[in-house]
């Protein structure tokens, strides 16, 4: 028998509307699971128990009275603690903001609330989302849902672990270099980074040079589509969002039709040198499934420029502008790995930053050229399954027992390029390694065609059964 906490947002919508299930009962079940698993996963900074139950009672009253219901009416969701939530503590994973309570919601959070969602809590993030591992002096370490000796990834690690464990079917995350897609792959869930501006980012300080995104995270492609439908659309705070029409993401998530006449470009490495055997096997099986759906698959053969150094100059330069004064005042209370990364950027000049922005434009144009011929670009999401919980950001990683080098360019070379180009990209599970941990498939689409990325993901998901597996918690 399926437990209430296992139901998808899409299933809950139908059952709420038919008065088969109570939003109060579902919210209680999810809160109970959050509190029971918190000692094991450490996925939450704040759990909004009383507030969530009050909202659930209001949602139930609206159903019983036959009032109009939003797209996610009564559905529990969590929000990464980088995203502002009115009246609910938002710490950014930092001791310096441990008592910060925003007066207003971020636009994406406000839209989830307006769609009828019920906020159950704030999920963990490394301080200011600065790395692909989720730990901070404020809360300690967060664990992978499938095995607590492994990292849940980052920086949306708490969100991914919670979703994988059934602590709400959907959540809000963020992605500045892969921060949604990396933990989605580590925990076997669905994480999408939309096209720049599809979901407005009302908190980003450099709105024009932005490369960071507010994102959905869920267990299924349909639930991701529902979140996209709720959160997308123009807003005056984000210039990239203005004038961008909302596509029918929910229709795109219906796994109908095939891929006949479609062309998919793929790469197993994207400039990297080492990919784990299990990842290669799962990725090749995924390609065969796409081929069986009728697509023509072509391997990317061209030499690519180094893209991680471009991202690093833009990202670390931005961080230096944001956090250098903060570190000068209170660096002894901040995460050492964040402080060290700002020190790495100390010698970069405005000219270095602008040259990186020039390179960003060149990379964008190169990738745009791919989509003149191909409909999608497909890679693994990560080069291996989740790293050890004890992995240090500055220590080399191992793949199949071989030391391969520093973490970023050797674990997730596939994600960072599309933060700086803005193209939509989604990660979903395509198998499990011999260690029992999930493996991710990464799908990239045409700029402003997020619906096509969701469509391919939905068709692929329908060909698999991975989403029926739950972590052994």
Radius of gyration: 21 Å
What fold name goes in the CATH topology slot? Amidase signature (AS) enzymes
**Would you list the SSEs in sequence order as H and E?**
HHEHEHEEEHEHEEHHEHEHHHEEEHHEEH
Please estimate the helix content: 25-40%
How would you write the strand order of the largest sheet? 1-3-2-6-8-7-14-15-11-9-10
Strand percentage, roughly? 15-25%
Mean pLDDT: 97
First-residue to last-residue Cα separation: 17 Å
- The geometry reads as globular
The CATH architecture comes to Alpha-Beta Complex
Structural class: alpha/beta
How many DSSP E strands?
Answer: 15
Domains counted in the coordinates: how many? Answer: 1
Uncertain spans: none
* CATH superfamily placement: Amidase signature (AS) domain
What does this structure look like?
This protein has 473 residues and is an alpha/beta fold. It has one domain: Amidase signature (AS) domain (Amidase signature (AS) enzymes, Alpha-Beta Complex), CATH 3.90.1300.10. The chain is built from 15 helices and 15 strands. The protein has an 11-stranded mixed β-sheet, sandwiched between helices. A two-stranded antiparallel ribbon has the order 4-5. A two-stranded antiparallel sheet has the order 12-13. Strand 2, helix 4 and strand 3 form a beta-alpha-beta unit. Helix 5 runs parallel beside helix 6. The longest helix has 23 residues. The two termini are 17 Å apart. 56% of the residues are buried. The mean pLDDT is 97.
């Amino acid at each position: 028998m399926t437990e209430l906490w296992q139901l998808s947002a899409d299933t809950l919508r139908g059952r709420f509307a038919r008065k088969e299930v109570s939003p109060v009962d579902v919210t209680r079940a999810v809160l109970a699971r959050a509190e029971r698993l918190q000692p094991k996963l450490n996925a939450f900074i704040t759990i909004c128990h009383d507030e969530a139950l009050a909202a659930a009672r209001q949602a139930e009253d609206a159903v019983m009275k036959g009032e109009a219901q939003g797209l996610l009416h009564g559905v529990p969701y969590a929000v990464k603690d980088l995203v502002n939530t009115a009246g609910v503590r938002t710490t950014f994973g930092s001791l310096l903001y441990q008592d910060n309570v925003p007066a207003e919601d971020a636009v994406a959070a406000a839209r989830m609330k307006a769609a009828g969602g019920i906020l159950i809590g704030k999920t963990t993030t490394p301080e200011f989302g600065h790395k692909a591992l989720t730990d901070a002096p404020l809360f300690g370490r967060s664990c992978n849902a499938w095995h607590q000796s492994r990292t849940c990834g980052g920086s949306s690690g708490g969100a991914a672990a919670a979703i994988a464990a059934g602590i709400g079917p959907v959540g809000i995350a963020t992605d500045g270099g892969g921060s949604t897609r990396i933990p989605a792959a580590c925990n076997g869930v669905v994480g999408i980074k939309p096209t720049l501006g599809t979901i407005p980012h009302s908190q980003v300080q450099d709105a024009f040079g932005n490369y960071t995104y507010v994102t959905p995270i869920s267990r299924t492609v349909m639930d991701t589509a529902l979140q996209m439908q709720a959160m997308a659309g123009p807003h005056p705070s984000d210039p990239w969002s203005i004038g961008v029409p909302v596509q029918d993401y929910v229709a795109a998530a219906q796994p109908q039709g095939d891929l006949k006449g479609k062309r998919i470009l793929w790469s197993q490495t994207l400039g990297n040198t080492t990919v784990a055997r299990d990842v290669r096997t799962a990725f090749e099986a995924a390609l065969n499934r796409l081929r069986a759906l009728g697509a023509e698959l072509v391997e990317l053969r061209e030499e690519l420029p180094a893209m991680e150094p471009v991202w690093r100059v833009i990202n670390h330069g931005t961080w230096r502008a944001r956090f250098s004064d903060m570190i000068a005042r209170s660096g002894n209370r901040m995460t050492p790995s964040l402080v060290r990364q700002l020190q790495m950027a100390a010698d970069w000049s405005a000219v270095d930053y602008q040259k990186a922005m020039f390179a960003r434009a060149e990379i964008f144009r190169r990738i745009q050229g791919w989509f003149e011929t191909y409909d999608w670009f497909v890679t693994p999401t990560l080069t291996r399954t989740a790293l050890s919980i004890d992995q240090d950001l500055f220590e080399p990683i191992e793949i199949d027992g071989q030391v391969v080098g520093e973490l970023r360019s050797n674990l997730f070379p596939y994600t960072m390029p599309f933060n700086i180009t803005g193209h939509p990209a989604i990660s979903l599970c395509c198998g499990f390694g011999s260690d029992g941990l999930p493996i991710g498939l990464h799908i990239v689409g045409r700029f402003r065609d997020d619906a096509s990325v969701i469509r391919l993901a939905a068709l692929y998901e329908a060909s698999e059964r991975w989403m029926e597996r739950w972590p052994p918690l």
